[in-house]
Design a protein that fits this description.
It is a single chain. This protein is α/β, with parallel strands linked by helices. Strand 1, helix 2 and strand 2 form a beta-alpha-beta unit. Helix 2 packs across helix 9, helix 4 runs parallel beside helix 5 and helix 5 packs parallel to helix 6.
Length: about 300
């Protein structure tokens, strides 16, 4: 009986936190048309959060928004833009100002990755990874920081990856970009510790986001399959951790163990292991052989 009472109290406190954070503010989610971003949008709408959903043009974002409005009765704005463009983040910020939208929760979810030998990777492919995973994330956070700090309570959730914890041959720039997200988030959390803003960083492992990702995960061995979670599981863990003010959120026991192992194992062991795993991905898939997967959705691992 007592455990049930404690669970009910905990859930009530979480709902109270969510209500306090939201008020009349909005939750902005980048990369919201598919994958983890789309599921995060659904999870936020279920909690009664008003939303600003951002994604690439032509990704069906308005259909997602229409369903959320109808199903959950929340206010949903959409903005379609390629965040890798130099002026895109400024355009998004100006649009928010014109709409008089105040953001109380920022979820930097948009990101791109792929598998390719570095010396054959097209330079524009590398520019897009750096532009979206690093530049757009940091710049959007900077532009929204003043209004977040003016809220009674606010949150920033940056989506990194378990890939942030180790260098990975044949991905190279992607894990390095996610390591930036990790370091950036923890440093920013410390800087903002005396403000109402709490910064969290999410490190998912492999996720079953689409058939392409699922086929690639099949080349990674049994550990990848064991550590794979659904986007729904990751979204719920992420939002609970964010609202609880956790600094680092690593969903799944296997992923937590992997993080610990990466911290203690020497690179002489981890680098050949990672190279063997991801060289198979290059051999066994066609879409990623040239490293030209440019879709602005979050790709795990």
């Amino acid at each position: 009986m007592l455990p049930m009472v404690l669970l009910m109290i905990l859930r009530s406190l979480r709902r109270s936190k969510a209500a306090t954070v939201q008020q009349h503010n909005y939750t902005l989610i980048t990369g919201a048309s598919s994958g983890l971003g789309r599921v995060l949008a659904f999870a936020c709408a279920r909690r009664g959060f008003n939303l600003v959903l951002v994604s690439l043009p032509g990704e069906g974002l308005e259909a997602v928004a229409a369903y959320l409005r109808r199903r959950y009765g929340v206010v949903v704005h959409t903005y379609e833009i390629d965040l890798t463009r130099q002026s895109a983040v400024y355009e998004l910020h100006d649009w928010l100002a014109r709409k008089a939208i105040t953001v109380g929760i920022l979820i930097n979810n948009a990101g791109i990755g792929g598998t390719c030998a570095f010396d054959t990777a097209p330079p524009d492919y590398l520019e897009r990874i750096i532009g979206l995973n690093i530049r757009a994330l940091a710049l959007l956070t900077r532009l929204l920081a003043p209004q977040l700090a003016a809220c009674r309570q606010a949150h920033i959730l940056n989506v990194s990856s378990v890939a942030a914890f180790a260098p990975i041959p044949f991905k190279t720039v992607y894990p390095a970009s996610k390591a930036f997200v990790y370091a950036f988030s923890l440093a920013l959390r410390h800087e903002l510790r005396h403000t109402p803003v709490r910064v969290s960083v999410l490190h998912p492992g492999p996720m079953a986001t689409n058939t392409d990702v699922n086929s690639r995960l099949g080349t990674h061995g049994i550990m990848a399959r064991w550590s794979t979670l659904s986007t729904g599981q990751v979204a719920e863990i992420a939002l609970r951790g964010m609202l609880d003010g956790k600094a680092v959120i690593v969903p799944g026991l296997i992923n937590k163990i992997s993080r610990g192992l990466m911290a203690i194992l020497p690179h002489a062991i981890t680098l050949p292991l990672m190279a063997r795993i991801f060289s198979k991905e290059i051999k066994n898939t066609t879409d990623h052989e040239t490293g030209t997967d440019y879709r602005s959705e979050w790709l795990a691992g």
